[in-house]
Each structure stands twice: as structure tokens, then as C-alpha cells.
């Protein structure tokens, strides 16, 4: 059966022998008359990517009957769906952000375990983006589609590393999909912060970082570099940081900033949401050094424009090299690019003999790094 479909679909270069879904696929054969195209498995709808054979959406931007969620960032994980299937950590993050009743029903997806939904099998695999983040593999009739969500290949002490899933169709983001984006070693970036803190012991270093993932990664990286003083948090960081700690991620002492004591925090490192680095909240600290941890800080003009004194190029997304490398690693013959700098990546695929198309999907990146840069004139 599989051989038939592979041949018919021109997929002979893929090896399905090791597929964890082999038994299930044999138990639910799809008629040989039904040659599956990638678009039979996944299509684009106003709500987002939809699998008609399994009757579910992935990371829908509007409320749907059944949603599979790749990770907890709010542009991917929205509230109001009837049923949600996601990793345990992503479900917990959604509960922290939206309350326990964020969906009518929830189901936990165990990493690496396949399950049957309608006429397809699905499997969640680590994406290396934030705690609990996963790629979602959909397989039917011998065709395997991987929806990567957001992902990165760089080391991150706060989440499981990305795992390559060989597939026929790879669906990728392209937030940093231009050759100019090459992320440096994060350890060097964190050392810049520590060097600055040592050089200006009277000043408060205020680091803008996205509340889910980036903030905790910066804290963990500081600890890895031996920084053992308290890391002060803006109130908006508190609950998700507590959640990371409860999951066994060592972040050390992270007291919340008490408004009346800001003037006493000279020499401290404080982490806050990106917009707060420019508002009145941060100006009450002693002679603050404004820092911002984002892949966008690679663009120095952007850092200057936003009034960032110490840009830290730390990203939870793949840079150009890793996007290209990952596409190659999956062995996919077809690539769909969901959002970001789609055209450059599509062009790269085409020149490397890989069929590719941009999806121009709207609604993603709203709370990702795209919009992380503080707004000009964001004075509170
Ligand atoms: Zn994300």
C-alpha cells in the first residue's frame, strides 16, 4: 500500500520503513484510487491551516471546533476553541494566560507518540522554540506533512531541542528568512550584558524580553554564565516564570520589582516586557541601561531607532542558515512558508530544486518577535 502511494506520488526518495505510524497506516488503509496530494492533507482556510481528513485546524487564528496547537505564544495559541490538543506544557501555558476554561475540552499530546484523528495519524515532536513547543506531523496514505510552528536549532536551556522529522512536505515560518539574519552565539550576547553590568555598577540594566520563552531563556543563560544575584522581574513576567520554575527549570531567585523600591536597584538586572523599556516604569530606576533581547537587534539601525542602548541578539527563531539547513535535513520535496520573509526562502528552495510556495498567512507574528520591538513614542 505504502509503496503504491510513494510511487504514484513520486515520493520514492523518501524512506517510510522506519515510520512510527506504519502499523496504524496499515490498519486504516486509504483507497488506492484516492491519490493523496499534500493539499488533501492540509489546506488553507480563513481560520488557518486545516486538515479535512482529520477535521482539525492547526494554530487557528479564529475559534474552531478542534485545534491542534504547536506552542503557547498567543499568535498561535488563542482561546475560545471547543477542543484543544497540545503538549502538557502548552496546555498549562494557555491556562496561565487565559484561565483554566480557555477551551471546552483539552487533550494532552505526548511527544513522539502517534495518535489517530479521523483518517490521519498525528504526532508531536519537539520544536526547540519555547517550553512545550512542538512540530505536528500529519500522515495519511503514505504522505507525511510536518507543520513546524515556530522553531529554532540553537541551544536553549529552557526547552527540549528541535528534532528533525523526515517528511514530504515541510511547513515552515520565515521570521528571519533573509541571508542578513545570522544569529550570534547567545553566550556572547549574555556576556555583553554581564560586562556592561560590571562596568556600570551603579546603573540598572533593564532587559526587554518577550514574557514567554525569551525572558526565561535570558535568565537561564545568565545563570549558566555564573550570575547568581537576584534577577528582578516586571510583574507581567511573574506567572510564566513561576511556571517554568515549577517545570524544573533552574532560574534562581527572581523577585518581582516593588514599585517603591525601584530607586534602590542600581546595579541590578531587571527583565520586563519590551514595551516597558521605553515607558515611565523603567525611568524610575537609577540611570537605566536599556537592553533588548531579540533577533531584530541584528539590525543596528532598528536598535538605535528604538532607543536601545545595549542590543542583545537573542532569538527563539531560526536564522537564515538554520532555516535552509532544516529544510535540507527534512528531505522535503515541497515547502510551504507560512509567514515572515517568505519570498526569499521560497526563492532559495526553488533554486535548490525544492517546490515551494508562500502562504502569506495573516495573524502570526502579532506577539512574536516581529512585533516585539517597542513602539516609537511608547511613553506611558
Ligand atoms: Zn512563537
UniProtKB/TrEMBL annotation:
Organism: Microvirga guangxiensis
Top-rank lineage group of the source organism: Bacteria
Gene3D superfamilies (UniProt xref): 3.40.50.10890, Ribonuclease Z/Hydroxyacylglutathione hydrolase-like
Gene Ontology molecular function: any one: RNA endonuclease activity
Protein name, UniProt field: Putative mRNA 3-end processing factor
Domain Metallo-beta-lactamase: 30-210
